[in-house]
Amino acid sequence: MDRAELEAKQKSLIAESQQVQKALDTLNGSMGKSPSMSDVKAHEALTQARKDTQKELIQVERELSDLTAKGTF
């Protein structure tokens, strides 16, 4: 991938991460003391999505950093 593709992917991942976090915050605010099984499963899925997105974002940022270190702008 070239720099432009990596930067576009980075922007997309940041937006996705923000959406997942917003959904997680909303779910956390509505669950209460005894959440339903569907709430628990949704929470687990959103938490995993957040982890996956962050992991992918870190990889893209490393690739961008490598390009910068190599002088490839």
Helix percent reads over 70%
Give the strand tally: 0
The sequence of SSEs as H and E is: HH
**What is the CA-atom radius of gyration, in angstroms?**
16 Å
- Quote the average pLDDT: 93
**Largest sheet, strands/sense/barrel:** none
Q: How much beta, percentage-wise?
A: under 5%
Q: Which residues form runs of ≥5 with pLDDT under 50? A: none
Terminus-to-terminus distance:
12 Å
Outline type: rod-shaped
Classification by helices and strands: mainly alpha
Number of separate helices: 2
Question: Can you characterise this structure?
Answer:
The protein has 73 residues and is mostly helical. The protein has a domain at 1-6 and 21-26 and 37-67. The chain is 85% helix and 0% strand. It is built from two helices and no strands. α1 runs antiparallel to α2 (37-69). The longest helix has 33 residues, at 37-69.
